[in-house]
Amino acid sequence: MHKFHSLVLSLGVFSIVGTQLGMIGILPMLAREYGISIVTAGLAVCMAS
To answer: Domain limits of the chain?
Structure first.
């Protein structure tokens, strides 16, 4: 049972970190596409989620 809890925790952490790092990777593309700064694009993503 201990291994199951560790697996579930690991998958949860991986999914949360993976989605956050994925968004960080596309911020420069979003900023270029919409003609805004990277800081503004990051703020828009934070407010949308």
So the answer is: 21-49
- On the CB side of 43, CA atoms within 13 Å amount to 5
Q: Tell which residue, 5, 7, 41, 47, has the closest CA to residue 25.
A: 41
Show the tokens assigned to 20.
Answer: 């956050």
For 9-49, write each residue's pLDDT tens digit: 999 998 888 777 777 788 899 899 999 999 998 888 888 76
Q: How far is 18 from 4, CA to CA, in rounded Å?
A: 21
The pTM for the full model equals: 0.53
> In sequence order, what E strands does the chain have?
none
How far, in Å, CA of 40 to CA of 37, rounded? 5
